[in-house]
Amino acid sequence: MIPNRQEDSRTHGKGRLGALLEVLAVSTKLGLTSFGGPIAHLGYFHDEYVRRRKWMDERSYADLVALCQLLPGPASSQVGIGIGVSRAGLLGGLAAWLGFTLPSVVALVLFAYFVRGYDIGSAGWIHGLQLVAVAIVAQAVTGMKRQLAPDRGRATVAVLAAAGVLLWQSVYTQALVIVAAGLVGWRIYRQEGAREEAPGLRVPVGRIGAVVCLALFAILLAGLPLLRSFGDAARWLAMFDGFYRSGALVFGGGHVVLPLLERVVVPAGWVSLADFSAGYGAAQAVPGPLFTFAAYLGTMAGGIAGAAIAIVGIFLPAFLLVVGALPFWNALRGSPSIRGALAGINAAVVGILLAALYDPLWTTAVARPADAALALLLFLLLAYWKLPPWAVVLAGAAGGMLLGLLPV
């Protein structure tokens, strides 16, 4: 499919390079200022791309958001990539991703180097960041439950998903739970999934190019595990495979990637559990997508090269899936079966996040009543006082230092 003539003339009037630089500049601005998580990011995108710049109309933006919610990966980043693709082609999608992610990547790489030279075991403020992570994930669970598991049936799916993840801890568990929930949703909720027809999205990507992207996504997902046991670069392949799999198999994005990443880096000995929780807490204080937490983990595991491998690995599936799915979305978006499966998958996402709240976050950070009290206070500041995440991070760090002064 091709973009409409009006949009195409505006883009070519600026020239290809001008359009790319414009996308990069606007997305970098968003990467520096978009605090608050995926839902907030979508609000920032709407204000900047739709309301102010009119790069996309309201209905097309809503369709793009719906597609990215259906795909695995970081939804807000995928929406940004889709807007970049529609504005300036494939390189526009790359520029939109780069601008949105680079600020938080730089911040988290610097934080990782600071932590690597620090005695993290005796740092009260690090413990405070671990408790911040508990509070933020608890807030995410409560918010997502209201939206994605509002009735008895979907709440049941969520609880069973949490139980499955906790009882059978494997790198494949989350994917299997999501597939099972999708089948349940397809069977039960497909009659609720139909929606009115709407004008299709216009994207400058042909179906042949889309098929190539989807094929590459599948080849990497299946082939990387087979390559891990070969050659001297086996560790780098293992890292790339682990982060790629995390980006390819997580639905719901953001906080839901936490258990997958933990199972990639902690058992392998690349990052300690304490470092993992501290970095996750710090990731709440920076703008941009939460998936850039991978930059911190990659730096802890292998320096700048590790950060590059982690970031490319975790975001590559998102890029391939968005580009591969856009030309086909118009034919699929009205399917009741697709909508029904999505209802079940979204409920399972709530359960997976609930399981992550307990293990590894609660079991790692909360060891005494004072820890639980601080975590509850931080949750109060987030959920009811509506403090921005960076302010809660500062409060958590200060609270952790005060806890360190208390007798054990």
Task: Provide an overview of this structure.
With 408 residues, this protein is mostly helical. The chain has one domain (5-403). Helix content is 76%, strand content 0%. The chain has helices at residues 5-14, 16-33, 38-52, 58-70, 75-116, 124-148, 152-167, 173-189, 207-227, 234-249, 258-265, 273-283, 293-332, 336-365, 369-383, 389-403. Helix 5 runs antiparallel to helix 13, helix 7 (152-167) packs antiparallel against helix 8 and helix 10 (234-249) packs antiparallel against helix 11 (258-265). The longest helix is centred in the first third of the chain and has 42 residues, at 75-116. The chain starts with a helix and ends in a 5-residue tail after the last helix. Residues 1-10 have low confidence and may be disordered.
Defining traits:
408 residues; mainly alpha; 76% helix; 0% strand; globular; disordered N terminus
Reading the helices and strands in chain order gives HHHHHHHHHHHHHHHH
Shape: globular
Strand content: under 5%
Count of DSSP E strands?
0
Break the fold down into its secondary structure elements and pairings:
Elements lengths: L4 H10 L1 H18 L4 H15 L5 H13 L4 H42 L7 H25 L3 H16 L5 H17 L17 H21 L6 H16 L8 H8 L7 H11 L9 H40 L3 H30 L3 H15 L5 H15 L5
Helix pairs in contact: 2-5, 3-5, 4-5, 5-12, 5-13, 6-12, 6-14, 6-15, 6-16, 7-8, 7-14, 8-14, 9-10, 9-13, 10-11, 10-13, 12-13, 15-16
Family: Belongs to the chromate ion transporter (CHR) (TC 2.A.51) family.
Keywords: Cell membrane, Membrane, Transmembrane, Transmembrane helix
InterPro entries: Chr_Tranpt_l_chain, Chromate_transpt
